[in-house]
Amino acid sequence: MIGVTGGIGSGKSTVCDLFEQRKVPVFRADAVARTITEGPAKKEIVVAFGPEILDESGSLDRKALAAIVFSDEEKLELLNSVVHPLVFDEFSRWKAALPAGTRYALAEAALMFESGMFQMMDYVLAVMADENVRVSRTMARDAADEAAVRSRLRFQLSAEELIELSDFQLSNNGSLGDLGGKVSFFAVLFSTLTPPPPENA
Questions:
Q1: How do the domains of the chain map onto residue ranges?
Q2: Which side of the chain, N or C, has fewer Cβ within a 10 Å radius?
Q3: pTM for this structure?
């Protein structure tokens, strides 16, 4: 199992899209988390953060929730403590249902290391991009202002930390064509890997 992580705007989802085009199974932890926050975790989140995080229809106002948690580290940790265990449960079910003979699969998660999900991986690939590139991409994607994006960056691992913690790194500052070539390289590499021995072996 290969974990894929990276900061906002790094392009990790696009990397996973390209692997999916190669018929590689991909677990999208962040998408699962969004579903969970509107389902089994919603009541607990509202109790923790108050009814002001709901919009007029009763759905979570994600911008309001983000404004709270990305300005207070303790509240971010509280939200993650509610959501992450449920995401891990979904991942375990997804992994168990993979077809026999699957050579490798990917699990994409923005908080791969912070959440502890890396412990469920054999290897981790970090998708890297320069900070200004990431900020520009995120502003365009989310229609967000620069200050809001940089505020979110403060709660994410630095490039140096990602390099230290991950097994492989993929630089994604260029075009989609450039990225496709790099994904091709890693697709071949991952197909040759065997799980590492246990640390206590």
A1: 2-192
A2: C
A3: 0.86
Mean pLDDT per block of 10 residues along the chain (201 residues) reads: 95 96 96 88 87 85 83 85 92 96 95 93 96 91 86 86 96 94 97 78 49
Query: Topology of 2-192 in CATH?
Result: Rossmann fold (3.40.50)
Other beta carbons within 10 Å of 29: 25
Q: Is 194 left (phi over 0), alpha (psi -120 to 50) or beta?
A: beta
CA torsion angle 89 93 96 97 (round to 10): -160
Matching residue, tokens 């469920």 = 120
Residue 172 CA to residue 182 CA, distance in Å, equals 9
